[in-house]
Task: structure prediction
Amino acid sequence: MEWKGAGPGVLLVHAGVADSRMWDPQFEPLAAAHHVIRFDIRGFGRSPMPPGTFAYHDDIAAVARAAGCDRVTLIGCSFGGHLCLDTALAYPDLAERLVLVAPSLGTAAEDEAMGSFGGEEEALLERGDLDGATELNLRMWVDGPHRAPEQVDPAVREKVRVMQREAFAMEMPEGVKRTRLDPPAAEQLGAIRVPTLAVVGALDVPVLLDVAERIEREVPGARRVVIPNAAHMVTLERPHEFARALEGFLG
Result:
């Protein structure tokens, strides 16, 4: 866990293909006016996956408390956006605002393309082909469905490649059990009662573009911003445009 700055609390929750390093473009700028916190969720970056029962939303609340925050703006990308929604529902007194970047709702497996991707990833991992599984994720989550790899900033591709490859190599012990929010966030969007901003890249996979629209439609008062010329990892591809989207929302 790392924190810096003073002012209103902002807690950054990374994507499932990354770790806290994905927030490098945002961490220092946000710290100029906020008490900004980033950390690696279990099984990513410098956070091992210990045996036992846990819930990611409990972890996020514990991180906020450890950093001295009773109220925070939760900013999450992809899987991290899903976890921020869970946290806002499980700990309504903690979340002051929500920024959901290319968020998932945990229902992507119902989409045919996502189901195909998941099956291919599982097959590669079962064969021990971590490099192949990593490249598959780069094609899906960095390149997106509309671009070839050579059309993407190679520095962004390499940064995500390193983070994803390390996550695949992380040792997973036996006896791990994740507790999930019940009912799931996808069934409780109307219960969100904090200002919410959904940000998505125009070149992202269709199912997640649909999720951003659904959040705008079902979360009371939510706003949606679509950033052009970016796919799923919009905070790395278009950090300046993302910063502009945050400015007005964070005040």
About this structure: The longest strand covers residues 95-101.
